[in-house]
Design a protein that fits this description.
By secondary structure, this protein is of the alpha/beta class. The chain contains 17 helices and 15 strands. A six-stranded parallel beta sheet has the order 6-5-4-7-8-9, with helices on both faces. A six-stranded mixed beta sheet has the order 10-11-15-12-13-14, sandwiched between helices. Helix 3 links the parallel strand 4 and strand 5. It is globular and about 65 Å long.
């Protein structure tokens, strides 16, 4: 029976379909746990005119979490990112009778089936991962809606991953083409999301807290965030349009030098960098902590990779795997991370399942024409190392359902993936060097595809399944772990050596 996101029929041609069917159930629960609409409705309650945000995160304690809707003449919603539709659906439901207007932007082809069902919030589609004219138009509509507000106004900002390219407003002296070129250079450089957004914030008039600057210090601003950033750094997610920014022009200069971008970025961007460093020509810094524009601001995380990974672990245990979440802060180059994954089955007796969250990178050569994404590249690279592991299945899942510039959610590979490629006369190593993983996984029938856009985005989740669980799924989610299968220090040391261990 098909789930909301995964249909086991996509695995019907595989000899290990029974195992893949169990895996599909694990992936289903992984995504259901971070459905943005439900996450907001679980976290925020309304009683009469009182809106209350309930958070268990100690880092969010002390903020204003109760809002009296009756004291505001206008309530606005601005939303940006891949989870715009479900977040807006939840907010329209919560704000019924009080919402004045709203504007949102999401990834083109990113609307879940059934339509948006929104009445007050206007939603536009734009390009990702490289911005286009629609991205600039969306930013203009948002700024026009909420700039220069008063104490009688409440703005609720819903921010999710992808906002950095979906909603762009070039800083003075820059053009949309400058931002497009900058984004392309960063995407192919190997820079991580924190580094990319540090550069993009300093080329923007709304990122790095600058949207709050435009709203003004008198209005109340409540920001709800679906995190796609390792460590949940609110200043990085979506470019932090309403949050204080700690990055500086000096940081940008160091990032440009680190990745050799001096001659790859547009001249206007390099000129702005120079002026920012020298504090001349009116080039401002992004907005820093302590600025009075944040006097009436609150920020809350409504969903993240930890929630997705832990929900997947519960279902994996129910299906019969002894399961451990190794962390949710893994990063590094995709092909190196793949090699680390393939060593994990050597550390535990089957049936076991390892779950790892995070976000890797793929460093692309200039003029690369390959088709794929970091998750597809992880899966294909892993397949080259498990030909002698008949009980191992490795999955790499993009929680937004679209890995890189493709409509695929990732890959699911086993010991026979390489044999299927060879049968089709495919040189896997050559395709990996060309970063052309998608066509290979399609040919071997190892692509991971969702039945619909997920509407969420909390980084990636990687799975290593070893062995076949026997019997029907258990009714308990608290199956004990064996005591003798802790991941050896040597294996985790291997991850650190490869640069994949992140900051856990």
């Amino acid at each position: 029976m098909p789930g909301k996101y995964f249909d086991v029929e996509q695995f019907s041609d595989h000899s290990n379909r029974p195992v893949r069917s169990k895996i599909a159930a694990v992936l289903e629960e992984c995504l259901l746990a971070v459905d943005p609409r439900q996450a907001i409705l679980n976290m925020i309650q309304r009683s009469g005119n009182i809106l209350r945000v309930n958070t268990t995160d100690p880092n969010e304690a002390g903020q204003t979490n109760t809002f009296d809707l009756g004291k505001y003449e206008h309530v606005y919603v601005v939303a940006m990112g891949k989870a715009t539709i479900p977040m807006c659906q939840a907010l329209e439901e919560l704000l019924k009778g009080q919402l004045t207007a709203g504007c949102g932007v999401l990834k083109r082809k990113g609307t879940p089936s059934g339509g948006a069902g929104l009445s007050k919030i206007q939603v536009v589609e734009a390009s990702h991962p490289t911005p286009d004219e629609s991205s600039a138009q969306a930013a203009k509509q948002i700024v026009d809606l909420v700039q220069n507000l008063t104490e009688k106004d409440l703005v609720i900002a819903a921010v999710s991953g992808g906002a950095s390219s979906l909603c762009v407003s070039p800083a003075a002296g820059l053009t949309l083409e400058d931002l497009k070129c900058t984004t392309k250079a960063l995407l192919s450089s190997g820079a991580d999301i924190t580094e990319m957004n540090a550069v993009r914030k300093h080329c923007s008039s709304i990122k790095g807290g600058q949207l709050t600057r435009l709203i003004g210090s008198k209005a109340t601003v409540l920001t709800l965030i679906l995190s796609d950033v390792i460590g949940n750094d609110k200043s990085v997610i979506g470019g932090g349009p309403t949050y204080p920014d700690a990055s500086t022009w000096t940081d940008v200069q160091q990032i440009v030098a680190k990745y050799g971008l001096e001659h790859k970025l547009p001249a206007a961007v390099m000129s702005r960098l120079k002026n920012g460093l020298e504090q001349r020509d009116g080039v401002l810094e992004t907005v820093k902590s302590g600025d009075m524009v944040f006097n009436n601001s609150s920020w809350f995380i409504v969903g993240d990779n930890r929630i997705a990974s832990e929900a997947a672990a519960v279902e994996a245990r129910r299906q019969g795997w002894n399961t451990k979440v190794l962390g949710t802060s893994f990063d590094g180059e995709a092909v190196h991370f793949a090699k680390f994954l393939t060593a994990l089955p050597l550390t535990a007796p089957p049936p076991t399942c390892f779950i790892l969250g995070g976000e890797t990178t793929v460093t692309l050569p200039q003029d690369c024409t390959g088709k794929g994404g970091r998750n597809q590249e992880i899966a294909l690279a892993a397949a080259t190392h498990i030909t002698n592991q008949p009980q191992t299945v490795i999955v790499s899942l993009a929680t937004d359902g679209t890995d890189g510039p493709t409509d695929n959610a990732g890959g699911i590979v086993d010991c026979n993936t390489l044999n299927r490629a060879k049968a089709g006369q495919i040189d896997v190593q050559r395709q990996l060097l060309a970063h052309n993983s998608a066509p290979v996984l399609q040919a071997t029938k190892d692509l991971l595809e969702t039945r619909m856009p997920t509407g969420t985005n909390v980084n990636d989740v990687m799975f290593v399944f070893c062995g076949t669980p026997f019997g029907a799924p258990t009714t308990s989610s608290s199956k004990p772990h064996p005591t003798n299968w802790q991941v050896p220090v040597a294996i985790l040391g291997f991850a650190i050596l490869l640069g994949c261990a992140g900051k856990k």
